[in-house]
């Protein structure tokens, strides 16, 4: 309990309800996102995982609710838009767009530059360093249309990293990537955590939650549970989340 | 300046002015919206004319620009309901607004020079008659200055907001997260398109405006993978279309706007067939080369595999190989001839076998492929 009282939070979501048409997708969600944690958002299809992230990022208008970004003393950026980075699902953009890998990564710097100002040499340097970090340094001048799914994901990750934000939101970064890339991405996420950043990841694979994350939020329309993985990620909560009576975790006898 | 030169100059200025925003229309998959806007702005012009009763008032341009943005907004609002697709929404909004404009013109403005024919096709040949007079001096055709102003506005806007246009076009969600309102950039671009259309269609008509906006960027897209180059190539192609189109019209004594639109189509088809990487011809050639290359590798691998099995002793019968690989007579002959020419295999009657060089190449290629 002592640990918990010391937790600093970066975002507080209160009474959030979102609906598309008439069907609620998120129902009265209260959630606190702790600072410096690697948090998985887990739930069945259509549970509102991506919607939760989009609502926090102000990308859609909720029916009700408050999203509060808490300014911590250690935060370097005062502007909310510069504090937050977002890695959307890579399938959502047109990969035939006439651009190179470097061009796309540089887009991550645009928020820090503001209107009209162009990216300079310093931005290019940061972008190239980051590409190296995600193992894509040989691809910087490659056309984005030539990338594989895993490479696209790495480029999107690099684009988020160059934002040098405090809080990272990622929508299924492991979707369509091979095991090797998945492990590489996990290492990067842990690296971010070690730097004191907060990382929130929409995640699908229940089997890897304990291995990859230290915090987990289980949602299905509402928040079923949210807390440290070892406290809340158990059979009973998962059953409530997935409304299933079967075994959801391998090797976890009830 | 001769009228001929002036006509070509106007055409080039209009073409370049249209190609610049056109690149972003094409990349945003909004080509058909330009068709809609170039027609519906007529309603804006008519309504503004009813207020001012002056055909040369700048308010007409403002009215047209507003109507262009209204067109986009109406279309997108309809699309957002998810009850109909965007192309269907265009099919509703465009005829509705355009026909209202036509009815208003024929009913209330019949005596004024707001001629529906000239709206659709324009008449470049008459453009030089409309002069720009400053302090009693004739400084050239008026269209040069109206179209020139819009060209400069487009150049400056795209130069200043290149980064924002690129970001919003590629990934509007990221743009929103980073604080660049996609809606604002979007409607900014649509305002530019409307302004461009209204300035251009007086001179060249709405059909040619569409050809100028969409043709060059689509052609350029086949030639480059870089957004900046795409802008530059579009501008060049627009220029070529304008000049060659005029020559075509002069030679055959036909409609200038029609010739330029035709030229746009001809140039597109030529690039579509001949473009170095994405053209039909080079795709065809590349497929053929790949087919031969894979055929050669397949045969070599097959021979090497047979060597290691002890039933065949370093030789294979051609007809059995052909049977295994299920190749046509023509194809296997072609591949054998090529490999023989490269000294990779030896043919002895109905038998073929790998040469030492062939074996080395095969192992090397195998390792490259599977390591």
UniProtKB/TrEMBL annotation, chain A:
SUPFAM superfamilies: P-loop containing nucleoside triphosphate hydrolases (SSF52540). Pfam families: ABC_tran. One of its GO terms (molecular function) is ATP binding. Residues 11-246 form the ABC transporter domain. InterPro entries: AAA+_ATPase, ABC_transporter-like_ATP-bd, ABC_transporter-like_CS, Metal_Ion_Import_ABC, P-loop_NTPase. The keyword Transport applies. Signal peptide: none annotated. Keywords: ATP-binding, Nucleotide-binding, Transport. Belongs to the ABC transporter superfamily. PANTHER family: IRON TRANSPORT SYSTEM ATP-BINDING PROTEIN HI_0361-RELATED, METAL TRANSPORT SYSTEM ATP-BINDING PROTEIN TM_0124-RELATED. This is ATP-binding cassette domain-containing protein. It comes from Alkalibaculum sporogenes.
From TrEMBL, chain B:
The chain crosses the membrane at residues 6-27, 36-53, 59-76, 88-110, 143-162, 174-197, 203-223, 230-252, 258-281. CDD domains: TM_ABC_iron-siderophores_like. GO terms for cellular component: ATP-binding cassette (ABC) transporter complex. Coiled coil: none annotated. The keyword Cell membrane applies. GO terms for biological process: response to zinc ion; transmembrane transport. It is found in: Cell membrane. It is a multi-pass membrane protein. It comes from the Bacteria. Keywords: Cell membrane, Membrane, Transmembrane, Transmembrane helix, Transport. PANTHER family: ABC-TRANSPORTER METAL-BINDING PROTEIN, METAL TRANSPORT SYSTEM MEMBRANE PROTEIN CT_070-RELATED. Belongs to the ABC-3 integral membrane protein family. This is Metal ABC transporter permease. It comes from Alkalibaculum sporogenes.
């Amino acid at each position: 309990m002592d640990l918990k009282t010391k937790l600093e939070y970066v975002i507080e979501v209160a009474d959030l309800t979102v609906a598309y048409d008439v069907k609620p997708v998120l129902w009265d969600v209260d959630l606190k996102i702790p600072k410096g944690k690697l948090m998985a958002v887990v739930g069945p299809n259509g549970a509102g995982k991506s919607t939760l992230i989009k609502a926090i990022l102000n990308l859609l208008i909720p029916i009700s609710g408050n999203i509060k970004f808490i300014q911590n003393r250690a935060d370097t950026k005062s502007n909310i838009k510069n504090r937050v980075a977002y890695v959307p699902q890579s399938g959502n953009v047109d990969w035939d767009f006439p651009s190179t890998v470097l061009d796309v990564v540089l887009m991550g710097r645009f928020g820090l530059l503001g209107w009209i100002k162009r990216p300079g040499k310093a931005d290019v340097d940061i972008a190239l360093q980051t590409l190296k970090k995600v193992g894509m340094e040989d691809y910087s001048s490659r056309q984005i249309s030539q990338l594989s799914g895993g490479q696209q994901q790495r480029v999107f990750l690099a684009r988020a990293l160059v934002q040098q934000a405090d809080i990272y939101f990622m929508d299924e970064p492991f979707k369509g990537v091979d095991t090797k890339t998945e492990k590489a991405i996990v290492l990067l996420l842990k690296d971010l955590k070690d730097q004191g950043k907060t990382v929130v990841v929409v995640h699908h694979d229940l089997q890897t939650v304990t291995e990859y994350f230290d915090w987990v939020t289980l949602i299905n329309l509402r928040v079923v549970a949210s807390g440290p993985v070892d406290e809340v990620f158990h059979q009973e909560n998962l059953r409530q989340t997935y409304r299933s009576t079967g075994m959801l975790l391998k090797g976890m006898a009830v | 300046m001769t009228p001929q030169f002036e006509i070509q100059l106007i055409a080039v200025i209009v073409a370049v002015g249209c190609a610049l925003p056109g690149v972003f229309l094409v990349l945003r998959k909004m080509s058909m919206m330009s068709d809609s806007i170039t027609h519906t702005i007529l309603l804006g012009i008519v309504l503004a004319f009813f207020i001012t009763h002056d055909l040369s008032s700048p308010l007409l341009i403002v009215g047209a620009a507003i109507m262009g943005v209204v067109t986009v907004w109406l279309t997108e609002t309809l699309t957002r309901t998810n009850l109909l697709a965007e192309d269907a929404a265009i099919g509703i909004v465009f005829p509705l607004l355009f026909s209202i404009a036509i009815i208003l013109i024929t009913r209330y403005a019949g005596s004024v020079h707001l001629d529906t024919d000239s709206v659709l096709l324009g008449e470049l040949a008459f453009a030089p008659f409309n002069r720009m007079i400053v302090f009693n001096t004739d400084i050239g055709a008026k269209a040069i200055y109206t179209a020139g102003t819009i060209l400069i506005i487009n150049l400056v806007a795209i130069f200043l907001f290149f980064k924002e246009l690129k970001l919003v076009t590629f990934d509007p969600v990221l743009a929103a997260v980073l604080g660049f309102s996609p809606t604002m950039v979007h409607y900014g671009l649509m305002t530019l398109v409307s302004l461009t259309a209204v300035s251009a269609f007086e001179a060249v008509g709405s059909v040619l405006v569409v050809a100028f906006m969409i043709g060059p960027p689509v052609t350029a897209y086949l030639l480059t993978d870089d957004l900046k180059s795409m802008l530059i190539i579009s501008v060049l192609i627009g220029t070529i279309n304008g000049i060659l189109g005029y020559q075509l019209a002069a030679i055959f004594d036909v409609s200038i706007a029609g010739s330029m639109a035709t030229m746009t189509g001809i140039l597109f088809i030529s690039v579509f067939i001949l473009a170095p990487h994405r053209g039909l011809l080079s795709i065809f050639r590349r497929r053929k080369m790949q087919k031969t290359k894979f055929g050669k590798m397949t045969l070599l691998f097959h021979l090497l595999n047979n060597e290691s099995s002890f039933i065949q002793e370093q030789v294979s019968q051609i007809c059995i190989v052909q049977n295994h690989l299920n190749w046509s007579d023509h194809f296997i002959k072609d591949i054998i001839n090529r490999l023989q020419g490269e000294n990779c295999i030896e043919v002895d009657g109905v038998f073929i076998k790998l040469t030492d060089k062939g074996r080395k190449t095969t192992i090397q290629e195998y390792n490259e492929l599977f390591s």
